[in-house]
Amino acid sequence: MFFFRNKHMMVDFGTGNNNKLNWVLEDKQELIDIIETVYRGAKKGRGLVVSPKDYSTRHRY
User: Family per UniProt (predicted)?
Assistant: First the structure.
């Protein structure tokens, strides 16, 4: 879960749940990219941002 200035930030990962990240990331840079996206969206006043990578499971085999 992400918070910025006491406001809950939601991130659209493509999984249907915009509140939390509950899987293992591949590397550190992936987490850094997500945090940067959340920070940039929060600075613009957005409550929901779209993740830089689509994590939907419908195309994973």
Answer: Belongs to the DIM1 family.
Render pLDDT for 29-43 as a digit per residue (tens, 0 to 9): 999 999 999 999 999
CB distance 24 to 60 below 8 Å: no
Residues 6+ apart with CB under 8 A from 9: 2, 3, 38, 41, 42, 47, 48, 49
DSSP-derived secondary structure letter, 12: E
Task: Give the Å distances, CA to CA, from 29 to 6, 15, 58.
Answer: 25, 20, 24
Q: What is the pTM of this model?
A: 0.80
Domains plus CATH for the chain?
A: 1-16+28-61 (3.40.30.10)
